[in-house]
Each structure stands twice: as C-alpha cells, then as structure tokens.
Amino acid sequence: MSGNVLELSQIELHGSATTPAEAIEEAAKILIAAGAVSSEYVRYMHDREATVSTYMGNFLAIPHGTNEGKDTILASALSFVRYDNPIDWNGNPVRFVVGIAGKDGGHMEVLSSIALIFSEDDQVAALLAAKTPEEVLELLGDVNG
C-alpha cells in the first residue's frame, strides 16, 4: 500500500449490492484487496451497522468497524462504491458507500474530509456525474492529505 488512503483500485463506480448488508460486504472486499484489513474486519463493520446506522445524509453511508475490530486493521484506507440505483438504507436512499478502516485512530481526519465533501450539494452532484475513477479521486483528493 502507498501512503494514500484512497487509490484508483479502491474506487468502484457501478456497485452491484442492493441491500446495506451487501454494500458493506462490497466495501469490505475492496479494503481487504487493498491490504488494509484482514477478512475478519467485515464482521465488525456489520456489528457497527447493527448498533447504529452509518447513513450520513446526502446519499452517503460510511460503514466502518467497531473498536473491538481494530486489531483487524492493518493500514488506514478507504473504499468508494457508487451505485447506479439507490440502496434503501433504513428508509434513506444511498448512492455512495465509503468503507473506512482507520489504523491508530487515523480514520477521524478521513471521516472529516468525507463529511465536508458530502456536505456540498455541488460536490455530490459532481461525484454522481463522474465518469471515471480518476475523476472521483480528483474530487476526493483531500482525503489523501
């Protein structure tokens, strides 16, 4: 892994999930493939969702693991999945699922960056319109510091 939390290989523009549980699995697979988490991390992501919804507003959900799963995190990273059709996330439409793994508390700064980007309607519109992972990475560039 490079020093960046988000790489082109961690961006999927046409997710296949149709439920929150499937979307969490899809986000986790990307984090596992990136070498950021062990395969056990997905269980802690599901545990978090069972406790509190990770829906954030503006078509965004940010699934991440519980504190009990921190030993399964190998490096800080993001996965970004956009859906062509909204996923019903407990009554809320979700088009973006951003999986987060934060090593040694490194996720708080990343969470802040994502929250700022998604608080701007024009940024959300740009992310919906993006045609390539490169465009998404440019729009989310602040997450890499």
Features of this protein?
37% helix; 145 residues; Mannitol-specific EII, Chain A; alpha/beta
Assembly context of the chains: single chain
**Helical coverage, percent range:** 25-40%
Give me the CATH fold name: Mannitol-specific EII, Chain A
Number of domains: 1
Poorly predicted parts: none
The spatial strand order of the largest sheet comes to 1-4-5-3-2
Shape: globular
Q: How would you characterize this protein structure?
A:
With 145 residues, this protein is of the alpha/beta class. It has one domain: 3-Layer(aba) Sandwich (Mannitol-specific EII, Chain A). Helix content is 37%, strand content 21%. It has helices at residues 20-33, 41-51, 107-118, 121-129, 133-139, and strands at residues 11-12, 55-57, 60-61, 77-89, 92-101. A five-stranded mixed sheet has the order 1-4-5-3-2. A hairpin with a 2-residue loop joins strand 2 (55-57) and strand 3 (60-61). Helix 1 packs antiparallel against helix 2. The radius of gyration is 14 Å and the shape is globular. 41% of the residues are buried.
Write the layout of secondary structure elements.
Blueprint: E1 11-12, H1 20-33, H2 41-51, E2 55-57, E3 60-61, E4 77-89, E5 92-101, H3 107-118, H4 121-129, H5 133-139
Parallel strand pairs: 1-4, 3-5
Antiparallel strand pairs: 2-3, 4-5
Helix pairs in contact: 1-2
